[in-house]
């Protein structure tokens, strides 16, 4: 695993895009602070940058570095969640502008998965996580379901044997600073 992480870090630092197993499904990833790398992901997915992307962080400190204000309720949700949960915060900061929503919001998931957590920790930056498919197409549930078009457009593919087998999308909750919660995906 260490060799895979090191290779991913080299690619990410160079502004590249990786195809990697996340705590949910296989994802396209890049340095979430690099505008050009984020643009590559939109291009690969053939997706408008008007729709923001999910960002992964590895710990509480990193979450606070990239979210302007973390509502108290978010900490409770993170602690109580029984499955991967993405929270959309009203305002992101220190990220590539094209990783944010048009309103400045950001969807972030605090990752607990072994491979992703170690990768983000060693990179010391958040990474983008979006499903490995063309926008509008079905989300592939495993590595074999990912199209050759996606595979041929990334800079590095993580060894499929590192896939820990979780095959569902994260829950997505949108939080407002006033404590209001909106469930976007269960």
Key descriptive features of the protein:
single chain; 186 residues; alpha/beta; DHBP synthase; 9-stranded mixed beta sheet; 9 strands; globular
Q: How would you sum up this structure in a few lines?
A:
The protein has 186 residues and is of the alpha/beta class. It contains 6 helices and 9 strands; from the N terminus they run αββαβααββαβαβββ.
Please name the CATH topology: DHBP synthase
Using only C-alpha atoms, the radius of gyration works out to: 15 Å
Number of helices, counting only DSSP H or I runs of 4 residues or more: 6
Tally of strands: 9
SSE string: HEEHEHHEEHEHEEE
Read across the widest sheet, the strand sequence of neighbours is: 7-1-2-6-3-5-4-8-9
Number of domains: 1
End-to-end Cα distance, whole Å, is 31 Å
How would you describe this protein?
The protein is 30% helix and 21% strand. It is α/β, with parallel strands linked by helices and 186 residues long. It has one domain: DHBP synthase, CATH 3.90.870.10. Strand 1 and strand 2 (26-29) form a beta hairpin. Helix 1 packs across helix 5. The radius of gyration is 15 Å and the shape is globular. It starts with a helix and ends with a strand. It is found in: Cytoplasm.
